[in-house]
Amino acid sequence: MEKQAERLLELIKERNRKSNCKVLSFVSGKGGVGKTTISTSFAYILANSFNKRVLLLDCDIGLGNVHLVLGLDPSKNLKAVLRGSSLSEVIQSIYNFDVVLGFSGIESFEELESYESANLLLQLDRVVENYDFVILDNSAGLSRFTVNFSRAATETYVITTPEPAALTDAYAFIKSMYKLYGYSAFKVIVNMARSKNEGFETFERLDTSVRKFLGFRLKLAGILPISHKVRESSRRKTLPVHTYPSDAFSIGLKRVAQLETGEVFPERRESFVERILRFLKEGI
Ligand SMILES: Nc1ncnc2c1ncn2[C@@H]1O[C@H](COP(=O)(O)OP(=O)(O)O)[C@@H](O)[C@H]1O
Ligand SMILES: [Mg+2]
Predict the structure, then answer these.
(1) What is the number of domains present in the chain?
(2) Which ligand is nearest to the CA of 30?
């Protein structure tokens, strides 16, 4: 992988292009806190309310369920790219945004470090240029995969709920990313809050620990309420933001998107995939 990664990195650098694409990684310490619900809904909002060109990547190894939420054909996935198909053949479009499924088809990070997968990253790098936003829906916790994709992302949205276990695991995630890689571009979404107050208190608890023990501050991106409409949408395999646009969950997430799009795009020196290749090369 190392030589291939080096060569690809050179190729990418040669092209010396600037991309304004923002890569947003959605992570959590604990599973079941709403990453897939929020990331798919976020992609929908950016595409439909903000007219952005959006690509959603299912990066959840083993358990990816974006296809279930969006009702897409699971056989069109990145495995096919590893077997020689082009990436454009596995891009599916729904609700005005594009989706690539199936890091779920890849059993381990090592599989992604093969020559074919380095090529896959190169292909990914080319398509990324066509979008304003790339959204990554990750698995829970600190797999090498999630860590490297998040390190390469412009920003990482940490999703937590008020539940103590979710909060402890969110802190552990942030701590590891900071201690190991100095990464601190975190935004926090408190999901399934029973009140605004509970949401703020949850954020305060996390932010206080991060300030006290790690020495930096977190940004609160939003508080999303627990909503039976979200559960109902999940049962019906539809997106809550599509079916219930005026539900408090949908409105809350639109505010998060408003904050995201209202920000000035940072000057980028390295592309998303350049960073991944560099991290792989560093062998961490
Ligand atoms: N704000 C919410 N209110 C109610 N249920 C929610 C909310 N957010 C997510 N859920 C539900 O929680 C479950 C887990 O969500 P999911 O997005 O799959 O989590 P993750 O991707 O983090 O594992 C789903 O059944 C989903 O419908
Ligand atoms: Mg998920």
Answers:
(1) 1
(2) 1
